[in-house]
Amino acid sequence: MTASTRFVALLRGINVGGRNAVRMPDLVGCFADAGFADVRTLGQSGNVVFTARRTSGARFEGDVAAMLEDRFGMPVPTVIRSRAEFARTMDEAPPGHGSPDLRADVFFCRHPLTPEQALAEMPELREGVDTIAVGPGALYFSRVAARATKTRIQKFMALPVFQQNTVRSWGTCVKVSGLLEED
């Protein structure tokens, strides 16, 4: 039997702009009803921390996405990372990624998409504004805060490959990391 592991499910597209409304207590209930333990949410945009006797990967993401669609009646693309995987993504961020001079995000890739495949689709970014780097299961994207209106990231967000990603701000990632470390 697999030991219990802490995970985070990063859900894409719920409670965004008044669309795909999902109440957090209902989300917690869905995970608890499926047998997951210690379920907590962070914010309203689909950050669910929980404990499970599973291993991460494409099948786990697919199982949770199917569970959510079944419960809420809409597709909910899902990225799942174990505590160790999430910690590695945080630890390997480029130096200064969370700097106050930057607007920094992490683009988490949903299986089977790799960060290298996503990067290959990335349009040319604006020099002196945008920066991107590959990390474990993710792309680190930042833009200079003072020039953020000049970013070209919208071009990537308009591409089909973007649908295989879910984005979290660096600040949200720090908070999720804290929840994953709580016992």
TrEMBL record:
* A Pfam family that the UniProt record links to this protein: DUF1697
SUPFAM superfamilies xrefs:
SP0830-like
The protein depicted here goes by the name: DUF1697 domain-containing protein
Could you tell me which species this protein originates from? Answer: Agromyces intestinalis
